[in-house]
């Protein structure tokens, strides 16, 4: 987001892509802000206006896409919640991320739609899927509150998964969560609620 950090970001992306290719991954997740220990946003860039942040992010993403196209790897841009886990993160809404992906127009850049983060930030999960699901390259699942397995919180994941399918989503769904009790119980809940 800071225009002076563009080259540093691109160098880090190249390293991430090399690591992804080494393990056979087809995509790399990217964020608007650097995240430190525990997912804490490293720099909020309070000295920069939202206009500068947005223009810098767009310009940097154009360069990222060029690298992704050359390397034949996908990039998934993830918006994060700004109240519970990632205070100060710039990209916080699906609409902004999806519209940037549409404007750039590369099949190598999509949005990572994290249902947990977006339930906290914006709600209206099914409407959001309807409006922006064509830009999803990956989906993350965890329930709210607590970031535990489906069925432990307020999100009706059976409905969410059915709606993703109805809207034509065929990509991966990843379960990025902390089991409420243990892994076996969490896996059982995933199978029952999704």
Structural descriptors:
globular, 194 residues, 44% helix
Q: What report would you give on this structure?
A:
The structure is a single chain. The chain has helices at 6-22, 50-71, 94-104, 115-121, 125-132, 157-166, 183-193, and strands spanning 27-30, 74-78, 109-114, 136-141, 172-175. It is globular and about 45 Å long. Helix 5 (125-132) runs parallel beside helix 6. Helices cover 44% and strands 13% of the residues. It starts with 5 loop residues before the first helix and ends with a helix. It is built from seven helices and five strands. The protein has 194 residues and is of the alpha/beta class. It has a five-stranded parallel β-sheet with strand order 1-2-3-4-5. The model has no long low-confidence stretch (mean pLDDT 97). Helix 3 (94-104) links the parallel strand 2 (74-78) and strand 3.
* Biggest β-sheet strands, sense, barrel: 5 strands, parallel
End-to-end Cα distance, whole Å, is: 36 Å
**What is the spatial order of strands in the main beta sheet?**
1-2-3-4-5
Number of distinct helices: 7
Number of strands: 5
One letter per element, helices H and strands E, the order comes to: HEHEHEHHEHEH
Structural class: alpha/beta
The overall pLDDT average reads 97
The helix content is 40-55%
Percent of sequence in beta strands: 5-15%
Provide a quick synopsis of the model:
This protein is of the alpha/beta class and 194 residues long.
How are the SSEs placed, and which strands pair?
Blueprint: H1 6-22, E1 27-30, H2 50-71, E2 74-78, H3 94-104, E3 109-114, H4 115-121, H5 125-132, E4 136-141, H6 157-166, E5 172-175, H7 183-193
Parallel strand pairs: 1-2, 2-3, 3-4, 4-5
């Amino acid at each position: 987001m800071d225009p002076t950090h563009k080259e540093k970001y691109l160098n880090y992306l190249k390293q991430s892509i090399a690591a992804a290719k080494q393990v056979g991954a087809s995509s790399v997740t990217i964020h608007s802000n650097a995240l430190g220990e525990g997912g804490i946003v490293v720099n909020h860039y309070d000295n920069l206006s939202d206009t500068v942040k947005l223009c810098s992010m767009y310009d940097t993403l154009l360069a990222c896409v060029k690298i992704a196209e050359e390397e034949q790897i996908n990039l998934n841009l993830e918006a994060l919640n700004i109240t519970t886990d990632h205070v100060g993160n710039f990209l916080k809404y699906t609409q902004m991320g999806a519209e940037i992906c549409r404007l750039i127009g590369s099949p190598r850049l999509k949005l990572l739609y994290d249902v947990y983060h977006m339930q906290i930030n914006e709600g209206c999960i099914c409407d959001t899927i309807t409006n922006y699901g064509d830009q999803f390259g990956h989906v993350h699942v965890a329930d709210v509150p607590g970031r535990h397995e489906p069925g432990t919180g307020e999100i009706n994941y059976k409905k969410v998964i059915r709606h993703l399918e109805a809207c034509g989503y065929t990509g991966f769904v990843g379960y990025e969560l902390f089991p409420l009790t243990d892994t076996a119980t969490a896996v059982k809940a995933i199978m029952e609620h999704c």
